[in-house]
Amino acid sequence: MSEVAAEAGVSPTAVSRYLNNRIELPQATRDRIDAAIAKLDYRPNVLARRLSKGKAEAISLVTPDIANPFFAELAAAVELEAHEHGYAVYISSTSSGAGNEADAIRRMSDGHVDGLIIMTNRVDDGTLAGLLEGRDNVVVLDEDIAGVSVPRIFVENVEGAYQATRHLLAAGHKDIALIGGPNRLMSVTERLAGFARAMEEAGIAVPPGRVMLGDYTSQFGETAANVLLDAADRPSAILACSDYIAIGVMKAVRALGLTIPRDLSLVGFDDMAFAELVDPPLTTVHQPVEDMGRLAVRHLLALLDSTQIPPAETRLPVRLIPRHSVAVPFIKATK
Length: 335
What we know:
CATH topology of the largest domain: Rossmann fold
Order of helices and strands: HHHHEHEHEHEEHEHEHEHEEHEE
Distance between the termini: 77 Å
CATH superfamily of the largest domain: Response regulator
Mean pLDDT: 90
Strand content: 15-25%
Shape: elongated
Low-confidence stretches: none
CATH class of the largest domain: Alpha Beta
Number of helices: 12
Number of domains: 3
């Protein structure tokens, strides 16, 4: 910094305050400092700066699976917003392991990060709640963790599933099945509620065998679809509670020699980038993934700066994206 100051003809204090946005300088002076920084290839000592501020200027993002496009998009949005505020992001991909999630939370105590955004896709047994309760630097994103009193950001799951089911009903479908994720997970419970509400309003009873819950994976989607489509009286439509599940359904349909939407109409949930690229393009419920990730960072930084208290719970709207995987039933679908 002394060399930069000498090159620019100013004091080291002026350079320091300029780099930390704590001084207003004439444009000519700012230009000389910038030119000196470029000429000398100067890089501030980030560690020293963080120590002087008493902050790590970094946050941790805990995600179940960074390879999953949904969580990858969320992570990208978190990084983008954090970097715009001068924060680094450390990502922990837990493979949905309870121990991995707990380890990621405990690392907050060593001072490596200032706060945490956590996403999980499993039902907590109380371990996460115990580790997170009482902390004032945590935001929960996408799925709820029961018993945790921290800011939480979700989407309108009930409304999304309701819109999707109504879309299938409007196309003439009455025998509609649902394939969802883990039982008792918040998003699954809420999407099932939206599905049930639409079917009840239509005066249609849903047999227990038409609802299959397991994992938010294409493998489970394929397995569940095989069971449903192998029945003597198979459904004419399926609501898949994630686009990944929908991909598995598509795979099962092709393997059975059937086609979408002639033999089966299909709606997903997420609106991942691949949803419009598959054949046929998938009708799905759009989640505002970028807005979710960015808002999580803003809420966390508000907690860290004590500038405001974010809402205890924020719900972001969803919307149905009609494409080509839904059609009027051509014939009664039978085995």
